[in-house]
Amino acid sequence: MAELTTVTDPDDPRLSDYTGLTDVELRRRREPAEGLFIAEGEKVIRRALDAGYAMRSMLLSAKWVDVMRDVIDETPAPVYAVAPELAERVTGYHVHRGALASMQRAPLQGAGALLAPESGDVRRVAVFEDIVDHANLGAAFRNAAALGVDAVLLTPRCADPLYRRAVKVSMGSVFHVPWTRLESWPADLGLLRAAGFTTAALCLGERSITLDELVARGYGKLALIFGTEGDGLTPQALGAADCHVRIPMDAGVDSLNVAAASAVAFYATRVRPA
Q: Which residues lie across from 40 on neighbouring strands?
């Protein structure tokens, strides 16, 4: 059972995991280096625990103590009760959901191990190149979880899916879709080919086939590659992909937001029952 401690000093070192949560650059540097991430809100905290992440501590406003009582009773991590005003001073924003937890990151496995047969029946993979917007990445993870994507691979410059905003937008889906970060891009597309995947780059271009045509080809193992929000995929990624694919659109619209495009592509290429 956790010890519930009331904290009244915003400079209390026990609250250090929660300081400056709105400072994106600080948190980008600090959280991976210290092996932590922040889960915000009751549902997200519970989903992180259900996924097997260990809790370092929890920060609650008074009205959330009873709501989270079962978690408090089951975790050995310290739980700090604070006034909403103090939580805002520490974090830098009004904590609407009243509950934050500092969670311990798990080591990432290599892409080769994630794609290996012993990892399960991995047949559809999403690859995100340089997606830097945390909300878009969180939404894409939520789409992946909802539409049966087996794994997600991120290029080295992609945003952190365990950053607070990405976790929040994903509603905790980032905890349930296996993912890892590639070390060399686009050379690591070779890992997908070695595992039997066809790599399909979502893009506009003269050689692009429609999404319907891709589906009709019936590839058994498919990796869908999505580019950054503004410029799309890099020439290097496009050159390394096996094929190019576009989503047909009307009304003079030429492209979709990357999260919306991922939802369309994931649904169209979903694995159907035999």
A: 100
CA–centroid distance for 160 within its chain = 7
Last residue of a domain, which of 51, 81, 104? 104
Cβ count within 10 A of residue 183: 12
> Which pTM was predicted?
0.92
- CA angle centred on 145, ends 141 and 149, rounded to 5°: 95
Residue of 149, 2, 171, 161 lying closest to 74 (CA atoms): 2
Residue 181 Rama label (left phi>0; alpha psi -120 to 50; beta): beta
Average pLDDT of the chain is: 93
CB-neighbour burial class of residue 36 (10 A; exposed 0-12, middle 13-18, buried 19+): middle
CA distance 155 to 33: 18
Asked if residue 273 belongs to a domain, the reply is no
CATH number for the domain spanning 213: value is 3.40.1280.10
Angle at CA 108, nearest 5°, toward 107 and 111?
155
pLDDT at 156 over 90: yes
**What does DSSP assign to residue 130?**
S
In a shared domain, residues 37 and 11? yes
Q: Is residue 116 part of a domain?
A: yes
The number of domains in the chain is: 2
Give just the sign of the alpha carbon dihedral 15, 18, 23, 26: positive
Query: How would residue 272 be classed by pLDDT, with cut points 50, 70 and 90?
Result: confident
Question: Which candidate, 91, 227, 57, 106, places its Cα nearest to that of 164?
Answer: 91
